[in-house]
Structures are given as C-alpha cells and as structure tokens.
Amino acid sequence: MCSGTARPATARQPLDLGALSSFCVAISLVSLVAYVVNFLAHDRMPPRSISTLSVALATGVLALLTCGLRRARRVLIMICCGFTVLSVDRFAHSAPMDHAAMAFLLAASVYAVPAWPEMKVVLSGGSASAMVERQEHHAGLLAGELHDEVLQLLALTCRRLDAARALDDPGALRAAMEDASRTLDEQAGTLRRIIATVSPAAVQGLGLAESVTSLAGQIAAENGLVVDVDVQGDRPHACAGENGVNLAVYRVAQEALTNVVKHADARRITVALTCRDEGISLTVTDDGRGLGPNPPRATEGYGMQGMRWRCEAYGGTFSARTADTTGTVVRAVFPLRNCRKTRAS
After folding, report:
1. CATH code, 202-345
2. Which InterPro entries match (predicted)?
C-alpha cells in the first residue's frame, strides 16, 4: 500500500516537468524573436550572444525532457548545436563557424517537416499537466460509477438481508437471499465491465484486431446498433514492443464508439482498422447527427481531447469531422517507426 504522503509527490512530478517544459519553450521563442529583431536591426540592440545562448540552453533542456519523441529530440539537438556555435562565434568571428551554425539550423528546418507531429507535442508545453488533469477526470468518473452503481446496490442488499433476518421468517429470508444473489451476479458483471474499461487485458491476450472486434460486438449488443468491423493488413497481431500503441488505438476506438452511443443518435457504425508495418490507422464512421460545420477545437470535451492527445503522444495524427452525407468520421493514425527499428535489430 502507498502511504498518503507519497501520492501528492508522485502526482507533482509530471506537473513540474510540464512547467519546466513550458518555461523552456517560452524562453526559446522569446530569445529567437529577440535574436531575429537584433539581427535585422544590425546589432543596434543588446548583444545577440545573450539570445543565442538562451536558445541553446532552452532547447538543450527540452531535448533532455523529450522522451520517446526521437524526431523532435533530433530537431532540438540540431537547433541547440546551431545556436551554441552562433553564441561562440560572437567572440571568435570565424566564417567556418558561421557556416557550421547555418548548416545545423538548415538541417533542423528540413528535418522539422517530417518531425512536425512530434514537435507539436513538445510545443504544447503543458502535455504532462494536461495528462494528469485528464487522468484525474477519468478517475473521478470511475469513482462516481463505483459509488452510484456498485456501492449503493450492495448497501441496499445488505439492508434487505438485515430486515429479513429481523423478521425471523424463513420464507422472507429465503426471498431476500435469492434477491441478494441476483444483485451480486449483476454487480459482478458491472465490476468486470469497469475492470475491462480500466485495464483491457484483451489487448495483450487477443491482439489488437480481435480486441477491437470484440469491443464493437459488445457495443452493438448492449445498445441495439449495427457495428461493422473491417480489418485489413498483414499484421493484425502486434509484436510485444507495440503494446503501448495498441492500447492507445484500443482506447481511441473505445472512446469513439462511446461518443457515438452517447451523442450521435446513430443506427449504424463502421469501424475500419488497418494494421501494417508502417503504422496503424483507425476510422470510425457513423450515420448520426454529425458534428456540425467546422466545429472549433476549443469546444472539444475530454473524450475528444483524450483521443487527440493519445495520437499526438505517439507522433500520430487525429481528425474528427462531419461526413459528406451524414454522421461523423473519426480517424486516428499511429506510426510504428520504433517497432520497425526493434524488429530490424
């Protein structure tokens, strides 16, 4: 068991890292603007060496904090090297050093194009704190569901048994016990559903394709919907190194289907899952009411934000739009660069 004082300290760690990351991003942008303005003003402002050194230090710290985003880290390292050379060149005034700095910055500019999805995660700055906030929100939802469904019915069952026992009537006690047995069976199913929602072991046991298919069948049976699943690709069973991506894909599918049930008023859903070596793509389409014309991202709820964050956390892309005819199309793409490198090695 964790002590009561350990939890707040553990929760503060990602918040502190998120604040440090946001601070470094702010320092980098401000220093870069100051450097450009000073360069255009022909050194009429304070020395550019302060700006170059600030950018180098801030991007270096960001590169150290950027875990799991390899392309973004490479861009930050190249920017750090370029501005480090520029800061040294303010004292040496060497043409080769100018050329080296420009080479680093040019390479960073070119490499930033394929690394842009990961760079967006870095520039967001508050990803860690946003992650903790979403986790707290979902923990609150889980606690409310346990309290409202499981705890309340168990307490009611206990009172019924106590009342029947106080009557000293074998028939009433037998009826109360039968009712309690039915309630316990129902709540056992509720607990299994909650456990599957929190930790879907099916992703590790069955594989991604089978887990998504099972999830779609469960949604269809519980809500009276028609859910078609189309799985394509030559690798429906994922390797062990992709469990994090598989769980993220499963969570996006779970949230997208839940949103359809809650908000879309749809009758038919189509789930398209494509699993290939270069990546996994998931598309969930329904025939419901849609999102409206050009819905702003500012109005997205926790569910939509959570799906977008899961995609961007793995360097992927996310989109949600109204279909051409009616309904909503949710699409998530997850690259698998890291697992390709693992298999190659």
Report:
1. 3.30.565.10
2. HATPase_C_sf, HATPase_dom, Sensor_HK_TwoCompSys, Sig_transdc_His_kin_sub3_dim/P
